Amino acid sequence: MPVGARSSPAEPVAAAAAPTLSEILTLDEVAAYLKISKKTVYKIVRSGALPAFKAGKHWRVRSDELGAWIARGSKESGRQSK
């Protein structure tokens, strides 16, 4: 094989298996989306209410987890107002 040439992987990774970059959000992006402070988002993540993971020193949130968290909150708010 020539120097610098790449070999193809034995099995290609399915597109659904690897999230795209747009599906991973920073706490700043979550705060902007929710229109709340980053400090508040950090508290929510640290409490475990919003699932998140650390990439090095930085927290990241999957967009589908954020959507599910919002839906759970909407359902709880609906129960309280009835």
Features:
3 helices; 45% helix; alpha+beta; three-stranded antiparallel beta sheet; globular; 13% strand; 82 residues
Structural class: alpha+beta
How much helix is in the residues?
Answer: 40-55%
Order the strands across the largest sheet as they lie in space: 1-3-2
The major β-sheet equals:
3 strands, antiparallel
How far is it from the N-terminal to the C-terminal residue, by CA? 69 Å
**SSE series:** EHHEEH
Unreliable spans: none
By DSSP (H or I, 4+ residues per run), the number of helices equals: 3
If you had to describe this structure to a student in words, what would you say it looks like?
This protein is α+β, with helices and mostly antiparallel strands and 82 residues long. 45% of the residues lie in helices and 13% in strands. It has three helices and three strands, in the order βααββα. It has helices at 27-34, 38-47, 63-81, and strands at residues 24-26, 53-55, 58-62. A three-stranded antiparallel sheet has the order 1-3-2. Helix 1 crosses helix 2 (38-47). It is globular and about 40 Å long. The model has no long low-confidence stretch (mean pLDDT 81).
